Amino acid sequence: MTGQMQVNRALFDDVMVPNYAPANIIPVKGEGSRVWDQQGREYIDFAGGIAVSSLGHCHPALVAAVKQQAEKLWHLSNVMTNEPALRLAKKLVDSTFADKVYFANSGAEANEAAFKLARRWALDKFGAHKDHIISFGKSFHGRTFFTVTVGGQAAYSDGFGPKPGAVLHAEFNNLDSVKALISENTCAVVLEPIQGEGGIIPATPEFLQGVRELCNQHNALLVMDEVQTGVGRTGKLYAYMNYGVTPDILTTAKSLGGGFPIGAMLTTNEIASHLKVGTHGSTYGGNPLACAVAQAVLDTIDQPEVLAQVLSNEQLFRQQLAAINEKYQVFSEVRGKGMLLGAVLNEKYKGRSRDFFLAAAEHGVMALVAGPDVIRFAPSLVIKSEDIMVGMQRFEQAVQQVTSV
Ligand SMILES: *Cc1c(COP(=O)(O)O)cnc(C)c1O
């Protein structure tokens, strides 16, 4: 890259708004589940860009899709439709409960559309009183003001002035807490099948089933936020398929683009009909480049052998983590499903997930945290066994370092 300005991490603090605190390294290249930084140091990627790089870095099918589309057509806006968007929507409809798709550019935007649709559906059908949205403590739904208010951590929505109203929070996996809040005024209950940012907390089958029944009894919509759990991450195309509980609205993003920004909201014909022409929109939503890449992602992942690999990778991760735990006694449990796993720190190491995360990076493995007590793994769904083994050797060194001081 001749003629390019030399840049380094220090420049971040000079020119970037300080809402992030990125690591000290700057990755410059990736291939599969390996990444290299400016100094040529190699990392095994167990983070997947926060459950986004579902096929690793520079997967040939995605590189081909983006190149092909880049030479055809980049953008139109929604004044016209486009072929990649139609193909992707058809694929999503054919492989899920949904009849209709709305495209956005991120998880937050997909959720924003879902919450607005739930409100509009209830207003049209039942009247203005039916505007309560019930979500859950520790949930995460994005950072727009509406979605962050629906999310279960007030700290993220405090300090920005008046919040959108009629948002109530129940306790996850506690059906009685939902019963206490749900009423004829409820338009939607919103949940993640596995809470991601909140600490990799899977919904119990009884809880999901119970919430579904409560929604039916009170004419409320069940909205599943599958932004983190979707697109094969739990070994099914969508996590709801593990439970046999079908949502009314589902949102998907992260893994869907494999690294290209895209989000989508899926729903039924009846519910979709309430977002009439002009009620909602986005300039970029359904952009041909994004949709072409997402189609290649779905075509690649939605195959029995790939979904089976997600579960065999999970077994290898669990075996390796159990072996490390036997030696160092750091985890109380490993939760989650497929390639969305959380190693929960035991009493002795409670609150120290960041120390393990930093030590891992030092030893050449990218991990994530999910709150102060959980180390999160959300790698490529097709990460090779060899990369898992090398990454776990490095992670063990990190655990040894943290536990030896
Ligand atoms: C990441 C995430 C979001 C927000 O997605 P963005 O693309 O960052 O806007 C919403 N819901 C869940 C469950 C997520 O994990």
UniProtKB/TrEMBL annotation:
<feature type="binding site">
    <location>
        <position position="283"/>
    </location>
    <ligand>
        <name>pyridoxal 5'-phosphate</name>
    </ligand>
</feature>
<comment type="similarity">
    <text>Belongs to the class-III pyridoxal-phosphate-dependent aminotransferase family. ArgD subfamily.</text>
</comment>
<dbReference type="InterPro" id="IPR049704">
    <property type="entry name" value="Aminotrans_3_PPA_site"/>
</dbReference>
<feature type="binding site">
    <location>
        <position position="143"/>
    </location>
    <ligand>
        <name>N(2)-acetyl-L-ornithine</name>
    </ligand>
</feature>
<feature type="binding site">
    <location>
        <position position="282"/>
    </location>
    <ligand>
        <name>N(2)-acetyl-L-ornithine</name>
    </ligand>
</feature>
<keyword id="KW-0808">Transferase</keyword>
<dbReference type="InterPro" id="IPR017652">
    <property type="entry name" value="Ac/SucOrn_transaminase_bac"/>
</dbReference>
<keyword id="KW-0032">Aminotransferase</keyword>
<dbReference type="Pfam" id="PF00202">
    <property type="entry name" value="Aminotran_3"/>
</dbReference>
<feature type="binding site">
    <location>
        <begin position="107"/>
        <end position="108"/>
    </location>
    <ligand>
        <name>pyridoxal 5'-phosphate</name>
    </ligand>
</feature>
<dbReference type="InterPro" id="IPR015421">
    <property type="entry name" value="PyrdxlP-dep_Trfase_major"/>
</dbReference>
<comment type="pathway">
    <text>Amino-acid biosynthesis; L-arginine biosynthesis; N(2)-acetyl-L-ornithine from L-glutamate: step 4/4.</text>
</comment>
<keyword id="KW-0963">Cytoplasm</keyword>
<feature type="modified residue" description="N6-(pyridoxal phosphate)lysine">
    <location>
        <position position="254"/>
    </location>
</feature>
<dbReference type="InterPro" id="IPR005814">
    <property type="entry name" value="Aminotrans_3"/>
</dbReference>
<feature type="binding site">
    <location>
        <begin position="225"/>
        <end position="228"/>
    </location>
    <ligand>
        <name>pyridoxal 5'-phosphate</name>
    </ligand>
</feature>
<protein>
    <recommendedName>
        <fullName>Acetylornithine aminotransferase</fullName>
        <ecNumber>2.6.1.11</ecNumber>
    </recommendedName>
</protein>
<dbReference type="GO" id="GO:0008483">
    <property type="term" value="F:transaminase activity"/>
</dbReference>
<dbReference type="InterPro" id="IPR004636">
    <property type="entry name" value="AcOrn/SuccOrn_fam"/>
</dbReference>
<dbReference type="InterPro" id="IPR015424">
    <property type="entry name" value="PyrdxlP-dep_Trfase"/>
</dbReference>
<dbReference type="InterPro" id="IPR015422">
    <property type="entry name" value="PyrdxlP-dep_Trfase_small"/>
</dbReference>
<feature type="binding site">
    <location>
        <position position="140"/>
    </location>
    <ligand>
        <name>pyridoxal 5'-phosphate</name>
    </ligand>
</feature>
<keyword id="KW-0028">Amino-acid biosynthesis</keyword>
<comment type="subunit">
    <text>Homodimer.</text>
</comment>
<dbReference type="InterPro" id="IPR050103">
    <property type="entry name" value="Class-III_PLP-dep_AT"/>
</dbReference>
<keyword id="KW-0663">Pyridoxal phosphate</keyword>
<keyword id="KW-0055">Arginine biosynthesis</keyword>
